[in-house]
Write a structure and sequence with these properties.
- The chain is of the alpha+beta class.
- The chain is 54% helix and 7% strand.
- The protein contains 18 helices and seven strands.
- The strands form two sheets. The protein has a four-stranded antiparallel β-sheet. A three-stranded antiparallel β-sheet has the order 1-2-3, with no helix packed on it.
- Strand 2 and strand 3 form a beta hairpin.
- Helix 6 packs parallel to helix 8, helix 8 runs antiparallel to helix 10 and helix 12 packs antiparallel against helix 13.
- The chain is globular, with a radius of gyration of 29 Å.
- The relative contact order is 0.08.
- About 11% of the residues have low confidence.
Length: 366
């Protein structure tokens, strides 16, 4: 343990902790020298020439702050994810806690990197990234912005590998590229964190991802049963399970049979009633020449004027009793009665509220 001596240029004295307290050692004893020599011999046996340099750097450390900064600046693969399942959302300073929790801190600390790999949470994370790209990108810190593009990279690579949900990612990248173009051409230097050249490279990466998704081709599997082999009532039941009108249109383009089922007026009426209120129907009523209501046209007309109802397999939860934002694992909750965070309420389930992507952003608006 080094201490500065009287001369500030000196390296300081060396101290060792004993049972009687701290004692200053003038020089290493023979026993310590033998232990160091034996340790070096063991290191030489185990480590090769490349590992010696790594071990020496780890043992000696970076004594200069400048070398530390250069090391982490050059290491592009370094990510600052905490992989925490829950965080405390504090909006003001108290005796126990000082400061407040920001949107960038919540995005960095919560485990969004692993949530991308979960099918139930995938669309939730994509929608959250889309909302951040539209209005909250400049409010993120430098670390949070770096993690944002790291999560986005994992999402794009996942879609390119498994060919699932490409439309969601195309919409996200379109909004992100539009936002970056406006920021770079307008007030980019004053609101963006970091070098402007870094943001130009990020915009080029986004444009490259858009081209890759545009050229994405689905691989056709020629063995086993296909969707066309299912009976009509099963196909119709699948269409009624979909909550997004664009998914219904896309599925109707597969076969002529699915196209006829996707044009069912009752199906589009159910979608309109699920997403919108009756007062909104009266304002945008579309009738055909025969006097029938065009529910399909009404659905897309209403979607342009009003936000559609969002549906996710799994979302973040907020505990009103503890003011904690957390991911709740349903399997652990059933097996071990785990609430997902250290809750002190007598009935934790009654305090939980599902958090939509927009609600997640609103939690950190002060």
């Amino acid at each position: 343990m080094p201490f500065l001596g009287q001369d500030w240029r000196s390296p300081g004295w060396s101290w060792i902790k004993t049972e009687d307290g701290w004692k200053r050692c003038e020089s290493l004893s023979e026993e310590l020298e033998r232990e160091n020599n034996q340790r070096n011999i063991n290191h030489n046996i185990i480590l090769n020439s490349e590992d010696k340099e790594i071990f020496t750097n780890e043992e000696n450390g970076y004594t200069s702050k400048k070398r530390k900064k250069d090391h982490f600046r050059n290491d592009n693969s370094t990510q600052c994810f905490y992989r925490e399942k829950w965080i405390y959302v504090h909006k003001e300073s108290t005796r126990e806690r000082h400061g407040y929790c920001t949107l960038g801190e919540a995005f960095t600390r919560l485990d969004f990197s692993s949530a991308v790999q979960d099918v139930r949470r995938f669309s939730y994370v994509v929608r959250l990234l889309q909302l951040i790209a539209k209005s909250q990108l400049t409010s993120l810190s430098g670390v949070a912005q770096k993690n944002y593009f790291s999560v986005l990279d994992k999402i794009v690579q996942k879609v390119l590998d498994d060919h699932q949900n490409p439309r969601l990612i195309k919409d996200l990248l379109q909004d992100l590229s539009s936002t970056l173009c406006i920021l770079l051409q307008g007030v980019g230097k004053s609101v963006l964190v970091g070098n402007i050249n870094i943001w130009v490279c990020r915009l080029e990466t986004v444009l490259t991802w858009q081209r890759q998704l545009q050229n994405l081709q689905m691989t056709q599997v020629n063995h086993g049963l296909t969707l066309s082999d299912l009976p009509l009532h099963t196909l119709n039941n699948i269409l009624y399970r979909l909550s997004d009108g664009w998914d219904v249109v896309t599925l109707g383009q597969v076969t002529p049979t699915l196209y006829l089922l996707s044009e069912d007026r009752r199906l589009w009426k159910k979608l309109c009633q699920y997403h919108f209120a009756e007062k909104q129907f009266c304002r945008h009523l579309i009738l055909s020449e025969q006097g029938h209501v065009e529910w399909k046209l009404m659905y897309f007309a209403l979607q342009k004027c009003y936000p559609a109802r969002e549906q996710y397999g799994d979302t973040l939860q907020f505990c009103r009793h503890c003011s904690i934002l957390f991911w709740k694992d349903c399997r652990l909750a059933l097996l071990f009665k785990d609430s997902g965070h250290p809750c002190t309420a007598t009935d934790p389930d009654s305090c939980f509220t599902p958090v939509s992507p927009q609600h997640f952003i609103d939690l950190f608006k002060f």
